[in-house]
Specification:
This protein has a domain of about 45 residues. By secondary structure, the protein is mainly α. About 10% of the residues have low confidence. It is rod-shaped, with a radius of gyration of 53 Å. The protein has one helix and no strands.
Length: about 170
């Protein structure tokens, strides 16, 4: 019986050692799992921070795009207003040019130096000379215009920006 007792003692010691080893490795395995879980949590938190930063950048870019769109619309409104103002000023300038031309014609009609054939008493010009029948701008028999414009295009030349005004 002695051998059987020794066998049971050895088997008991082996079982106790195995239980101790199992408990020690279980705790170690648990500690390793906790470390892995903590590492994964930190990695997930870092990914979330990056995602938040990307979202903030996206919002900022959207806000900038909205501001740029609003600025562009404001610039379009300002351009339309300036165009309208320029058209009004061009119309006013054309009107002033027409008034100036009329005033100049009136001044020429009254000025004795401009019209030397004019009778001072009656205010009428004496047109008994060779050009009495020729109207201003009419061509002579040599093809030359009487107003000094050989091509006859004096009225055809106009300012490109303001077609109403003659150069």
């Amino acid at each position: 019986m002695e051998t059987a007792l020794w066998i049971w003692v050895v088997v008991g010691i082996v079982v106790v050692v195995l239980i101790v080893l199992f408990l020690v490795t279980g705790q170690r395995r648990k500690a390793m799992q906790q470390k892995r879980d903590e590492s994964h949590r930190e990695k997930a938190a870092e990914i979330r921070r990056k995602a938040e930063n990307i979202e903030l950048d996206a919002r900022e870019n959207e806000a900038k795009a909205t501001r740029a769109r609003a600025d562009a619309e404001q610039a379009e409104v300002e351009a339309a207003r300036l165009k309208q103002e320029a058209e009004q000023r061009a119309a006013d300038a054309g009107s002033l040019r027409e008034d100036m031309a009329k005033q100049s014609q009136k001044a020429d009609a009254v000025d004795p130096d401009k019209n030397p054939d004019r009778d001072v008493r009656t205010g009428r010009g004496d047109r008994s000379g060779p050009e009495a029948g020729a109207d201003e701008g009419m061509r002579t028999d040599k093809g030359m215009r009487t107003d000094g414009d050989p091509h006859g295009d004096r009225d055809a030349r106009t300012d490109r920006d303001n077609p109403r005004s003659a150069v």
